[in-house]
């Protein structure tokens, strides 16, 4: 009797899929480190990053105080979850925003997805380059991909409700874990070929109901 006789075809296949997924999880951070794509100031599960100084809302918008205003954008997780954008619907200058309420919207695959504001205040600027070319700008979600600048109303109180530093790392780890629970063995093998889930992982996980999956995350659930 050899080792193959000890495993049923189903058990052998399950073991093979498990090894493929484990390889994916271990390989991605190493590959990105070798390629120089994971800066030393960033946190993450290996798939999703957040720089120091950035505060994350539970709905995956971010806020970064800059002088007397706050830059606001869409975090790396949400960008990769939703994938290629058809349009960005940004608020007009002067519009009020409230923490935990709709601030701007993404249009992707014919679906509109609302994103919640991380802070209270009034919009004083929007990123016209990002609005005109959303996919290009959002390749750098924490830099050129900022979406609006807000004059804060109650910044100190707002920041207490956001994740930063180690808390932001744990938040993204938890979000990545929720996605990993939905990762089928077949999808694990596909993602392994590309090194990391990038544009549109929600559509890969659930092609028929991907927008519902995205809305749950963007709604802070």
List the helices and strands and how they pair.
Blueprint: H1 9-34, E1 42-43, E2 50-51, E3 55-56, E4 61-66, E5 69-74, H2 76-82, E6 87-89, E7 96-97, E8 102-108, E9 111-116, E10 121-126, H3 128-132, H4 134-137, E11 148-152, H5 155-159, H6 166-181, H7 185-194, H8 201-205, H9 210-218
Antiparallel strand pairs: 1-2, 3-4, 4-5, 5-11, 6-8, 7-10, 8-9, 10-11
Sheet with the most strands, sense and barrel status: 6 strands, antiparallel
Rough outline:
globular
CATH superfamily: RNA polymerase II/Efflux pump adaptor protein, barrel-sandwich hybrid domain
- Assembly status: single chain
Helix content: 25-40%
Could you name the CATH class? Answer: Mainly Beta
Termini, distance in Å? Answer: 51 Å
Low-confidence stretches: 17-45, 188-197
- Please state roughly what percent of the residues sit in beta strands, choosing from under 5%, 5-15%, 15-25%, 25-35%, 35-45% or over 45%: 15-25%
Helix/strand-derived category reads alpha+beta
Strand order of the largest sheet: 3-4-5-11-10-7
CATH architecture level-2 label:
Beta Barrel
Assign the CATH topology. Answer: OB fold (Dihydrolipoamide Acetyltransferase, E2P)
Annotation, overall tally of beta strands:
11
State the order of secondary-structure elements, H for helix, E for strand.
HEEEEEHEEEEEHHEHHHHH
The gyration radius over C-alpha positions equals 19 Å
Q: How many domains, as an integer?
A: 1
Q: What's the number of helices?
A: 9
Mean pLDDT, nearest integer? 79
